[in-house]
Design a protein that fits this description.
This protein has about 350 residues and is an alpha/beta fold. It has 14 helices and ten strands. Strand 7, helix 6 and strand 8 form a beta-alpha-beta unit. Helix 2 runs parallel beside helix 11. The mean pLDDT is about 90.
Amino acid sequence: MEFRRLGASGLMVPALSFGTGTFGGRGPLFSAWGNTDVQEARRLVDICLDAGVTLFDTADVYSDGASEEILGAAIKGRRDQVLLSTKTSLPTGDGPHDAGSSRSRLIKACEAALRRLGTDYIDLLQLHAFDAGTPVEEVLSTLDALVRSGKVRYVGVSNFSGWQLMKSLAVAERYGYPRYVAHQVYYSLIGRDYEWELMPLGIDQGVGALVWSPLGWGRLTGKIRRGQPLPAQSRLHATAELGPPVDDEYLFSVVDVLDEIAKETGKTVPQIAINWLLQRPTVASVIIGARNEQQLKDNLGAVGWSLTPEQIARLDAVSQRDAAYPYFPYRRQEGFARLNPPVV
């Protein structure tokens, strides 16, 4: 397994990491993802560690905390072999301190995560969303205290906009607080908005990308084809409206090229989609998920080889879409393009 530096930090992470959203199966969203119990989780962790996948990602909202509990049980006795990443800030209840990134909430959430995970420190704590109601200075000073206490080692964010992340980095710089080294983002062959602003920001500021949903919310599994109904077992039946929207014809055009390259390489559609992401700037680790051993082993086949430049160019071309304002002039107008060359 290849290891990569996470942003401008000293932390080395595997190119593939494992997401535990399938652990627990509580609630309408996560029950559609999977319902892995402790015994199954141990087996999946075994397979990951054998393959060199040492980073495991979870969140307090995943199955109402059950994901953290099951992950903690699955790694019991081998904490020193793994990196633990968890997230907080999204609502976990109806109380006034059950959502957001206030000092009260962050301390409470961190303590609860440590308890559920069965550990005394978190390798990477990420804010799951920006809290517009709490001053950035309060958020970062609290994270600074958690890092200084030894309960958290690195901090990051997820699903921030460019200005939210940049403002946070500026405040951290001003007061000497820990800088965010990771941004957990949605990025896939059928969801390339990350490239418009957040990727250039990540390059400039040293923020590494941890990619969630690399298969486009379950659409790049190789089982969805033009003119065919959704497979009966697809989680899209229950979750399609909750995830990033995708135009059908756009999806099928990308899948057509993935199918062509699958025949050329002998790899599966998911393996090709993940391998493409691993060639992209700022990507430190792609988070893979799996309901079972077969899915996990197939996703692990995305590393140890590389697409050719010609194959990457074909995937780039079929998946490219015009950026929103103010980014589209950089691609369409020579003057803008000279000042702002595209990220490749």
